[in-house]
Amino acid sequence: MCITCDNQMQSTFWLDLTHRLLEQFTIDDFLSCLQQQLTIHPSLCQVALLINTSQSLHWHGVTPASQGINDSFLLENGPLHQIQTTHQPVQLTANAYQQRYPALYQAIELPDFHYYVGLPLANGQGGYHLCELFSQQPFEPIELLRHTLSIAMAHLQSHVQLRSEQQQLCQQRDDFHLLVNVTNSVLAQRDINQVIKQIAQEIHRYFAIDAITITLPAQRAQQIISYSTFFYHDQQINDCQQQALDAHTPSKQVFTSAKSCVYTLRAHAPANERSAADQKLFELWPAPSHQLGLIPISFAGKVCGVLQIAHGPVQGFADNKLKLLEQIAERVGIAIDNARAYQQIKGLKEKLVHENHYLSEQIDQMDHQFNQIIGRSSAIGEVLKQIEIVAKTNCSVLLLGETGTGKELFAKAIHQLSPRAKQRMVKMNCAAMPAGLLESDLFGHEKGAFTGASNSRIGRFELAHESSLFLDEIGDMPIELQPKLLRVLQEKEFERVGGNKLINVDVRLIAATNRDLKLMVEDKTFRSDLFYRLNVFPVRLPPLRERLEDIPTLVKFFTFKAARRLGREINSIPANVLQQLQQHPWPGNVRELENVVERAVLLSPGRELCLPSELNLQGAFNPAPINRPVVAPLDMQQGHQYQQIIQALKATNGIVAGPRGAAQKLGIKRTTLLSRMKRLGIDKQAVLEEQF
């Protein structure tokens, strides 16, 4: 009866042990439960488990294993190797265990025991776990305990594996949702600044990262632009700077290798290894060092930027976090490329609209322009030689000449002979545009830059990118706008009115003026540095009075052009008409000649060109003598000044000062005008008598 009761108690014990072990879901709980259940055995000292997986070995015991015990140590210095080979339990006395495994005996803090039992537990992967029992007396029954533990360990292993797979699936689901949210968030933005700002906010929200910097190549070679965002005490700090891309910076290494890395940046690192964003990181969170995560931003198989992240409080970066950020960086590359493409399309669309508007203006003016350079005189030949030389270069050209000498026509010739001829030349008259709108027309403006700026607009410099820009009457440009023009010519970059973004352009400038820029520099009405920048290759266009032999050819051309346009038939030009026209001084030069010929065509009664008496050319050719002071012969430059002052005095009826005076019209001071009149021997009264 006692034996039966004992057997029932044993069966109940093993059944209860099995049930309790099957309810455990972690190794530590399993070991604690086993230790607690086996306390029925009075001689038991300790139970330990050596978990053998395909990746590594793990020792579990009530007393923690000492540091420095690795897989190879356990295999070489413990009983697991014997169990793996024989598949049989190992039973040893304490002395035998110490003699056979001395290194393990010393490395692991073992209880005071007399007997050791090692039970092999199949792990389902062709290997075995090891359950170790340390006791004061021999432990029985070994096989029944082995069988029970094998079943419980198999169940526990399956549960752990399923839970691990479930956690992986949940993590993958969360990562997928994160990628979808980030992708939708950043792709919805079209402005690159908004894209980068949104990326920084999303990364900070999901990863609690406080410092995010996105580095992109700038338009200039060996230059980068960095967009940095810092989240400091619930405050978002945006910082955008541009700097040279140094070969020693970590970002440069990622650009080259296209691989992510974790870089430790120390506070005493050399300056060439620290960007402005790194400096800001140490300012906000002082520390001996910061750990940076550097991730390449790629698109279409090419690195187009670098994502740099750092925690404010010093922390590390887990591998799974970097891998997820690498996937985010791929979406960032797509978003940045889309934003750039959108901006480029938007810019091209604006440029097309402005080009269409500009071309419409030019078509309206086409009837009043020359379609070729006409003339075979030596003066014109010399000019054409200079144009042929300078046209093939990219240097600035300054066309000097009186009004009506065809400066725009020669500017077109320079452009057509240059490598930029495939692009349309953009032109602008600085004197025809109000000073307040001149800057906007030249450089463009952003929306809301000033009253009436309801939309952004690109300027002439952007229209002339990779082409030529012709600025006529450059001497009339306001002096306050001249420094900005000088900056464009020197740095090849500018900002729109009301904007803060640098725009790089490649423009070949052709300027023209009928004013004496040297004297304007002396009078402080034109900047000397801009003058020297424009005066790289000056070309003087001869006035019509210096190329009288070209007048017959010009008259024939203008006659047939005007006749065709006005619906008249003129097929003859008398020689005396040509002689009369050659005797005129033509202060208005070729433009004045064209206007006279057009009027003559309109008033000619037949098919022969006539100069009607209404034109009063004869009186103009033989003016009555006027008593003028005797002055020395004027050189070419003084002659030009002389003509300008005479015309200004005639236009203002001899008024020198005041808002309607000749000085205001010439753009100089009253005292300057009076001194020049005295030097050139100009008598105001004599000029007025000559006029009337």
From TrEMBL:
<dbReference type="InterPro" id="IPR027417">
    <property type="entry name" value="P-loop_NTPase"/>
</dbReference>
<keyword id="KW-0805">Transcription regulation</keyword>
<keyword id="KW-0547">Nucleotide-binding</keyword>
<dbReference type="InterPro" id="IPR029016">
    <property type="entry name" value="GAF-like_dom_sf"/>
</dbReference>
<dbReference type="InterPro" id="IPR002078">
    <property type="entry name" value="Sigma_54_int"/>
</dbReference>
<keyword id="KW-0804">Transcription</keyword>
<dbReference type="Pfam" id="PF25601">
    <property type="entry name" value="AAA_lid_14"/>
</dbReference>
<dbReference type="Pfam" id="PF00158">
    <property type="entry name" value="Sigma54_activat"/>
</dbReference>
<keyword id="KW-0238">DNA-binding</keyword>
<protein>
    <submittedName>
        <fullName>Sigma 54-interacting transcriptional regulator</fullName>
    </submittedName>
</protein>
<dbReference type="InterPro" id="IPR003593">
    <property type="entry name" value="AAA+_ATPase"/>
</dbReference>
<feature type="domain" description="Sigma-54 factor interaction">
    <location>
        <begin position="373"/>
        <end position="602"/>
    </location>
</feature>
<dbReference type="InterPro" id="IPR009057">
    <property type="entry name" value="Homeodomain-like_sf"/>
</dbReference>
<dbReference type="InterPro" id="IPR025944">
    <property type="entry name" value="Sigma_54_int_dom_CS"/>
</dbReference>
<dbReference type="Pfam" id="PF13185">
    <property type="entry name" value="GAF_2"/>
</dbReference>
<dbReference type="InterPro" id="IPR025662">
    <property type="entry name" value="Sigma_54_int_dom_ATP-bd_1"/>
</dbReference>
<dbReference type="InterPro" id="IPR003018">
    <property type="entry name" value="GAF"/>
</dbReference>
<keyword id="KW-0067">ATP-binding</keyword>
<dbReference type="InterPro" id="IPR058031">
    <property type="entry name" value="AAA_lid_NorR"/>
</dbReference>
